[in-house]
Amino acid sequence: METRKTHPRFKKIVRRSVRLKVHDEKNECAVGDKILAIETRPLSKEKRHRLYKIVEKAK
Question: 10 burial class (0-12, 13-18, 19+ CB within 10 angstroms)?
Fold first, then answer.
């Protein structure tokens, strides 16, 4: 997941990225797919999101 914010002092747009662990129940995704994930109850120690839908498959 990538967010863009303006730096408070230098006024430059800075990109921040976070890697989420997403629960894929049917094992549909591959590495590089673009997906939508929704927040859910804790599913494991680190998983807090669930796969909603695949937006774009990897090439």
Answer: exposed
Which positions ≥6 away from 32 have C-beta within 8 Å? 58, 59
Count up the domains in the chain and report the number: 1
List beta partners, residue 11.
Answer: none
Read off the amino acid at residue 30: A
Per-residue CA distances from 19 to 46, 50, 53 (Å) = 11, 14, 17
Q: Chain centroid to CA 15: how far?
A: 14
Q: pLDDT tens digits, residue range 17-47? A: 999 999 999 999 999 999 999 999 999 999 9
What range does the domain containing 45 cover?
20-59
